[in-house]
Design goal:
The chain is α+β, with helices and mostly antiparallel strands. The chain has a single domain, classed as Nuclear Transport Factor 2, Chain: A. The protein is 37% helix and 34% strand. It has a 4-stranded antiparallel beta sheet with strand order 1-2-3-4.
């Protein structure tokens, strides 16, 4: 039993220490926070420029009905799949397909999301995002 525990601890530490400062990791962390959990404040921490402006505007608009950091109880299930990417040294663009399902598991919507990331002062940030 102890070897399994050691393996579990090792895997946990490797995942916890993984580098999240990559264009794709930042892009997927953004999807996790913004789309899957409707947490604009957390998404804002990953953003810069136009993306940050969009999020700040949205936070101001929803402030009347939801306090910053307040979670939504009835979120649909949102899955994402990378369908395209363009990467360069200091910027990267990712195209994802989002599938939105209701509580019963029936697909209700699909959307394509474009996330543009850029390296700013040694940190990768989402600088723009859009849906189509």
């Amino acid at each position: 039993m102890k070897p399994r525990l050691h393996l579990f601890v090792f895997i946990f530490l490797m995942l916890a220490c993984s580098n999240r400062n990559t264009p794709r990791a930042v892009s997927e962390d953004f999807i996790y926070n913004y789309y899957q959990h409707a947490d604009q404040e957390a998404a804002l921490q990953l953003s810069h420029g136009l993306a940050a402006e969009k999020l700040e505007d949205e936070i101001a608009r929803v402030r009347e009905v939801r306090q910053p950091g307040e979670q939504i109880d009835e979120m649909p299930k949102i899955e994402y799949e990378l369908i395209g990417k363009e990467e360069a040294t200091t910027h990267a663009l990712f195209n994802y397909k989002l599938t939105i399902k209701n509580r019963s598991g029936t697909t209700t919507h699909t959307r394509n999301i474009v996330i543009n990331t850029e390296e700013i002062d040694g940190r990768w940030k989402v600088v723009n995002f859009d849906e189509y």
